[in-house]
Automatic annotation (TrEMBL):
PANTHER family (UniProt xref): ACREF/ENVCD OPERON REPRESSOR-RELATED, TRANSCRIPTIONAL REGULATORY PROTEIN
Gene3D superfamilies membership: Tetracycline Repressor, domain 2 (1.10.357.10)
Protein name stated in the entry: TetR/AcrR family transcriptional regulator
Pfam families: TetR, TetR_N
Domain HTH tetR-type per the UniProt entry, residue ranges: 5-65
Length: 221
């Protein structure tokens, strides 16, 4: 049993590496099996098809994001929480970047995954709304309920489309860097600029400087 679990984990990890480097559409189960020096039959023993591997990877991604998007219990939010959220989301985007690049194709190919993703996105929007409200309650942001809703939606749109933006402007999914994804997180932070409380501006400015990547660096091939 332990050997089976280990093989299953190797398949998942290899698939993630290949999907990230080459794009999910360009990788077949035969490619994955060859990369691992195993027979296709051995791979199919653990996963019936590529969609099953993708579903496993999505579950890992979903679990990771769900663990991040939580309001801390028993205390007020701080600017340090903002750093945590942004850096944790950046790490998740980088680790599962193929999913952001090929999202529409993945959901069209698997109706069950599409239904799962809809619930996931609704949950993320709900949690993000609560987080922004927490920053308002802590006096870090000054926003109305309507502004929180708009900021939540805009942040979600940037987060889920940033990798595709980079790929369409640069062309090669395997050529992306974590630094280029960092600029996407900066874009989310920049949306909040007009709502920052005066007393939080100095700390958030430090975050701006940490996350900023020049536009010409994003677009150069």
């Amino acid at each position: 049993m332990a050997a089976q679990i280990k093989t299953r984990e190797r398949i998942v990890q290899a698939s993630l590496e290949l999907f990230n480097a080459q794009g999910e559409r360009n990788v077949t189960t035969n490619h994955i099996a060859a990369h691992l020096s195993m027979s296709p039959g051995n791979l199919y023993y653990h996963f019936r098809n590529k969609q099953a591997i993708i579903a496993e990877l999505f579950t890992q991604y979903e679990t990771r994001v769900d663990a991040v998007l939580r309001v801390p219990e028993g205390r007020a939010m701080t600017v340090e929480d903002k750093t945590f959220y942004l850096e944790a989301l950046l790490a998740a985007m980088w680790q599962f970047r193929f999913m952001h690049r090929d999202l529409e194709h993945l959901l069209e190919a698997d109706p069950e995954l599409a239904a799962h993703y809809r619930h996931f996105s609704q949950r993320c929007l709900s949690h993000a709304t609560a987080i922004y409200q927490g920053f308002v309650d802590a006096g870090i942001l000054r926003m109305t309920a309507a502004q929180i809703e708009a900021l939540t939606l805009n942040s979600w749109i940037i987060m889920t489309s940033w990798v595709r933006f980079l790929c369409t402007t640069r062309g090669d999914p395997g050529d992306l860097s974590e630094e280029q994804l960092r600029r996407g997180i900066y874009q989310i932070l920049a949306l909040e600029g007009g709502y920052l409380a005066l007393e939080a501006q100095a700390a958030v400015e430090a975050l701006y400087r940490k996350l900023y990547v020049p536009l010409e660096q994003l677009l150069q091939g």
